[in-house]
Write the structure tokens for this entry.
Amino acid sequence: MKLTTALLGAACAIALAPAAYAERGTDGELKLTFPQAVSILNPFLSSGTKDVYSSSMIIEPLAGYDASGNLIPKLAVEIPTLENGGISADLTSITWKLLPGLLWSDGTPVTADDVVFTANYCMDPAGGCAQASKFDGVASVEAVDASTVKVTFAAAKPNPYTAFVGALSPIIQKAQFAACTGAAAPTCTDQNNGPIGTGPYMVTGFTVNDTVSMAANPNYRDPMKPAFATAVIKGGGDAEGSARAVMETGEFDYAWNTQIPPDSQAAMTAAGKGQFVVAFGTLIERLEMNMTNPSPDLPEGERSTAMHPHPFLTDIRVRTALSKAIDRSILVEVGYGAGGAPACNIVPAPAAWASDNTGCIAQDMEGAKALLDEAGWVVGADGIREKDGMKLNILYQTTVNPVRQDFQALIKDWWTELGVNVELKAIDPSVFFGGDAGSPDTFQKFYADVEMYANNSDGTDPETYLSQYQCKNAPKPENQWQGENMNRFCDPAYDALVAELSGTRDIAKRQEIAKKLNDMVTKDSMIVIPLVHRGTLSAHSNALGGVQINAWDSEMWNVADWYRVKVSLRGGP
């Protein structure tokens, strides 16, 4: 058929139409790239964000947080409140109702017994749960009936949205994990690497520290979702390579954690194939000070445990000197530009919860030197400080990442000026954040003096985040190195204040206590040295629709709503 003159005169434009998809699985494959490869798909056995985010596509909590930090139901009918009767008047219990007809991806029903089992799994004293703080204060979890779960607390709990809320605390299937409780938990490779879930996707293949392959869950509760028939997460490489694979080559649809300098972001954006998306929540790039001795001369099982205090980092003057020597403004300029700000708090947001602590911002090299002098560390002939025959040597570890290596180089220069001998170590992020109890290079095991990474709380109330620094949460052999208190800080006064926060209802008082807890681990003790308040930065293709960057929960919180932007022909006059 020949085109007529009239048809030739009509403008025929190719347009990107963000039309909703028609049915499940019509948009082909969703391709994600993580510079930190996934090591396990069970967030109860890993504190690595890469593992938590990837598993959130498969297993889900009762509730989560949207992009604005608001609570939203996931597997629950609604968010329990005092008003709807879901929270008891004395604040000692919360009752959740499961959505009717919920199925696991294997087609079996989701019941209250699965929720009860999940709680017992994480709270088992013989095991090691990376998310134990989510269950702080929980006295019992019981199935009222097949679709109703009651969580009872040991005392009034003004913030009961901890257990089963957010990507850190999903529900796992009792039938699949029944033989995986306690000390057996990390031995269940098949279960941990292929959990049966309720999420929009299910695992079809997993190569540890490499690739996760998924297919649309045929039993997902919304029959129209997800739009993609399959999904794959390819891990490894580096942040710049991941970003380039979306922004320049178009090989992938989404790149998580594109932690690259501002000039690289601008150059990649110019290609016109994708966009960087950023959200500010509570993400803090920080240094953690090891309060225990990581010396390899100690027997395995005793290194970096409370059995052996650190030979010099237990002196607050040394820790404070290390902080004073750092110019955080230069770190921001080099690493993040408008995507970061100098930070002295581990809880930088929301604003009402953030301490007015700004004393660390200005570099004070002379003050740092004076503190080391006061502590008895004398500069030797080689320029390295020493005391009682010991050199001031620091092993400073972090992950392989261009921004972090820039930070390491700058901080090493400043500390060298202080008279500190600094050895740098960069570890594959898949290993560092992997949670493997047998590896010497995880951030939980902390076989170094200082380590650097970013961490944040989920949701806008930092109670569970701050409770991580309780004495009981120190990683150690007895809990398979799965504790959350990486630096082994232990202060009964801190633990008592956490308990007070847990039982405080008045919001202004809660904020006041949270600020005190923040200050106790930062300016008062310097066991954590915050560096930069980072935005959560990722990248997605212009052909990927539905993305809403979320700094309060998993970035994949609404992955069921992602779709391929259709290319269509439009006619016009």
Observations:
- Residues 29-273+542-566 form a domain with the D-Maltodextrin-Binding Protein; domain 2 fold (CATH 3.40.190.10).
- The two ends are 21 Å apart (CA to CA).
